[in-house]
Amino acid sequence: MSGYTAPLKDMRFVLNELAGLGDVANLPGYEDASPETVDAILEGASKFASEALDPLNYSGDREGSVWSDGNVTTPKGFKDAYRQFAEGGWPALPFGAKWGGQGLPKLVATVVEEMVISANMSFSLCPLLTQGAVHALELAGSEALKKTYLEKMVAGRWTGTMNLTEPQAGSDLALVRTRAVPASSAGHGDHYLISGQKIFITYGEHDLAENIVHLVLARTPDAPEGVKGISLFVVPKFLPNADGTPGERNSAKCASIEHKLGIHASPTAVMVFENAKGYLVGEPNRGLSYMFVMMNAARFGVGLQGVAIAERAFQRALAYARERLQGKDLLQGSKTVPIIRHPDVRRMLMLMKSQTEAARALAYVVAAAMDTASRTKDKEEAKRLQAFIDLMIPVVKGWSTEMGIEVASLGVQVHGGMGFIEETGAAQHLRDARIATIYEGTTGIQAGDLLGRKIAREGGVTVKGWLEVLKGLDQALAKSADADIQVVRQRLAAGAQAVADCVDYVLAAAGKDPNAAFAGAVPFLMLMGVVAGGWQMARAALIAERKLRKKEGDAAFLAAKIKTVRFFADHVLAQAGGLAVTVTQGAGAVMALPEEQFLAA
Amino acid sequence: MSGYTAPLKDMRFVLNELAGLGDVANLPGYEDASPETVDAILEGASKFASEALDPLNYSGDREGSVWSDGNVTTPKGFKDAYRQFAEGGWPALPFGAKWGGQGLPKLVATVVEEMVISANMSFSLCPLLTQGAVHALELAGSEALKKTYLEKMVAGRWTGTMNLTEPQAGSDLALVRTRAVPASSAGHGDHYLISGQKIFITYGEHDLAENIVHLVLARTPDAPEGVKGISLFVVPKFLPNADGTPGERNSAKCASIEHKLGIHASPTAVMVFENAKGYLVGEPNRGLSYMFVMMNAARFGVGLQGVAIAERAFQRALAYARERLQGKDLLQGSKTVPIIRHPDVRRMLMLMKSQTEAARALAYVVAAAMDTASRTKDKEEAKRLQAFIDLMIPVVKGWSTEMGIEVASLGVQVHGGMGFIEETGAAQHLRDARIATIYEGTTGIQAGDLLGRKIAREGGVTVKGWLEVLKGLDQALAKSADADIQVVRQRLAAGAQAVADCVDYVLAAAGKDPNAAFAGAVPFLMLMGVVAGGWQMARAALIAERKLRKKEGDAAFLAAKIKTVRFFADHVLAQAGGLAVTVTQGAGAVMALPEEQFLAA
């Protein structure tokens, strides 16, 4: 079985050339992100991912996490790997020094996270959720809460969860029923008693850490109905003692864990709260807005899962394609050759490689924007960048995860019959990838957010600004003498025009016929992804061309990058026109069928 | 969990209006296929599928077939269901009366098979493989072999297998190594001793029937190398006694069964032959050509799996979308509504429904062509139809199965988080569907067959003939006053043009640069599928319009059909232009990357 190798050359190229690590490192507070430090971090993370996490990926899938009497045992090796992960300081990477973090840019943490996910997606979910919980507490928690929880969570000694979903409340959090009744008692101070059932709680129970810090959405007795009556609470598994050690067991219990298609090692808990002690985070009834802040980070993290799983599936398929002998070369062949010589296998590998690189580039560029938005002293720039980030988060989440499924499925296909056999490992990537278009908001939810909140609500200002950026790039591309880059330019321009047409359509439709605007939301999101990915790929091609001209860098890698970009243009960007037709002309047919005519038996 | 209901209205519409059951029933030998008989068969099959097979689908997946000491036990209930299946005469449906068959058209058998697969894909594979073996024996077996085996196989008492693949010989059968040494002995007459290992043998061992008839590809000692030295043998599990009962156990043993992503109930055997007694089928060294004949039938059958699993996934998603309450209606809403009211869920359901109907229509039309080609007295018509069938088999196989995966994955998506939970059942359809693009020749193999053997080799005669048929349809569509049909016409014409462009490109490239011709083979196959599906959908819309005008038939169903066709045009046919760009301009980038640049670590 092939092992994971961090694609460091591409990661560094994207980091330095596209995402601008140099500029990020010049931001206040990021002085530590020197090229040497970042290099050392990437090397260390790469080693940890390949040596500690990757070997547990297949066995973790086979074994799964196991529930027994309220406790969850993670697969063999996970506990030790998590200990190493915490001891290595990896959970602390993106957090501020105040709570023991390393204060490194989101951009650098993103690269490390990609490696961790590629090596072991199930494992990676525990730190991802913990990160979200830390963000929520940083954002809205009282000083007392921060003091009690943050240091331990940043150190990875305690982990975090997000308790949103209930059986009747999934995408629609207005339907949350969990109750929070104010109480007070000696030793616990003012608190709330939380009662209700939460489902789909990732790492809701496990054996990796000393304590689990649940962030729970619930309603106080006097709360208004709907989303405006939801508050956020901290509900620890063990109530902290005065000295900060985990004390009395809280009545937050794991009733069972789910039997899932993939991510078997990651326990997905049904949590039952019975008068569990909880502490209000921030103001009452503002829980959903706090959650949305951390959800943006979580959505970005899930988008990164699409990239990471695609990379892992690609590497496995590539290893097989190089080694499996079958068929003759179409041109020279009397000898049986590795299947990578066959055009269709090559096409699949290029589709995997080029889309993975495009999605990676987009994700890292958005991460760099987050760093700049949060640290720049230029308030206008921060505002502009935040709008860009908000626009792109649903694209990174929705498009990269749909791409992740496609690429993982191609990975199975490259293996032929062996791909269907679980021991090969390719099928696991498909099963694991399949969740990423669902949790933290389905692709449909992302697309609705993109069209509604991020475009229609502001009259398309930000997306039109981005289209102007694409025009600027078009002019730069026009100056290239490279024939491949000229084709890329042509397809990117067609893609940008397709986006512009769709934006006009959506802005016109949104007010008068929301169904017509939203019927094409997902094809529009996919179009945005294809064009945004194409944007970064076209930039990459131009930079590669310039560096080749100046004889800088690895010439073979740079030449390959231009060819990969050309492939992306012909095989992925070429879909743009069709998607635009669907968005702008296909809405009517979506709602045309009477409900009772869907199945005529 | 939602049950399977045969979509009888659509099946009958396609059968009668598009595939022309009336004309098929007028062919010599198909007189029994009267409307009443066919109706009774469909009702009976629908009942059997829903009541006997569907309830075993989920439990069969959970339990799986189990190997122990060379024996395989199928999941609980399978043995009894198979007994009912055989007693009901279902295996005999498509075979001639000579061996006890019912002599019904392939077209009718196809509808029944769709139901069986929808209800239980794992179960359906046993009769599918048996059918293939019966065809091979009918085609090339001696009278003695036919007499010994066919009656029992047609009755379903003995089942059949196809033993092609070996560890080193998958898509490339030239690499087959299994040996067949001539021998002779009292009681067994002239036979061969077969030795070798075969893998991926569907129902290679099981407990459903009295005997298993393996058809095995092997080489005789003096055989030429490569595909021209492969012969076909019958190797029964139990050597038949003189009275036809199963006798001595042959040394064809099941060494293990695979642990697969899906179709868990269907045992996929590793078969070991150690001087097993085998009987030559037809002439030596012609095994592959016999296999190809039965492979066409098998490929059609696998294509049908794409349709059937898509239908099942659609029905499950539809049931959930009608019952799951979440979110408000975009137009009128203060109340929480079933998610089928939301445009994106509706879009997914329409994508599932319209593509399933398109692929079904294409498959049934090809089945009807098989019936006519085999029974018509007009030799020119038979030849023309056979060429059409040969052209369309890889499309039915490749496109319908890729579509099946897409639709099954959409089915998971419609369920949101519940789709990822195995108990929901949606994930099983995705896992089951995933094999269909692989076995009986991957999509890449189908696409190569389509471009090479079916188009380039004959200078595109048949595909150009089909494009003329599309032109005729275009003229008929032009006469419609229906606005939806006018849009359908426009998109179908663009699709046909896209096919024509690709055919010109391929014919020009095939001779001088095969890599360039074949680099876009799969996108071309997908284009052919989309346009061929669109062809049948456009015919359906025209027929529905005519019947509505004449006030014939179910008006609500017919109106819904036109809307479904319109959706297909805007959301599926709209992809045609992008696919053509990829085929005609994207080949260069496929082979451009040096092999060592695929992974730059």
Q: N- to C-terminal separation of chain A?
A: 47 Å
Tell me what portion of residues of chain A adopts beta-strand conformation. 5-15%
Count of discrete alpha- or pi-helical segments spanning 4 or more residues of chain A: 20
Question: What proportion of the residues of chain A is helical, as a percent range?
Answer: 55-70%
The radius of gyration computed from the alpha-carbon positions of chain A, rounded to a whole number of angstroms, is 24 Å
Global geometry of chain A: globular
Sheet of most strands of chain A: 7 strands, mixed
Which quaternary structure do these chains form?
Answer: homodimer
Overall residue-averaged pLDDT value of chain A: 96
Q: Name the structural class of chain A.
A: alpha+beta
Largest interface: A-B, 111 and 111 residues
Counted beta strands of chain A:
13
Which consecutive residue ranges of chain A, at least 5 long each, have pLDDT under 50? none
Task: Describe this structure as you would to a colleague.
The structure is a homodimer of 601-residue chains. The first copy, chain A, is an alpha+beta fold and 601 residues long. Chain A has 20 helices and 13 strands. Chain A has helices at 8-18, 21-25, 35-53, 57-63, 78-87, 106-119, 121-140, 143-154, 287-323, 343-375, 379-414, 426-433, 443-455, 461-478, 483-512, 514-519, 521-549, 555-571, 576-585, 587-591; strands at residues 66-68, 71-73, 158-163, 179-185, 189-202, 211-218, 231-236, 238-240, 246-249, 252-257, 268-281, 325-328, 336-338. In chain A, the strands form four sheets. In chain A, strands 3, 4, 5, 6, 7, 10 and 11 form a seven-stranded mixed sheet that branches. In chain A, helix 9 (287-323) packs parallel to helix 11 and helix 17 (521-549) packs antiparallel against helix 18 (555-571). The radius of gyration of chain A is 24 Å and the shape is globular. Chain A starts with 7 loop residues before the first helix and ends in a 10-residue tail after the last helix. The mean pLDDT of chain A is 96. At the A-B interface, helix 1, helix 9, strand 12, helix 10 and helix 11 of A face helix 1, helix 9, strand 12, helix 10 and helix 11 of B.
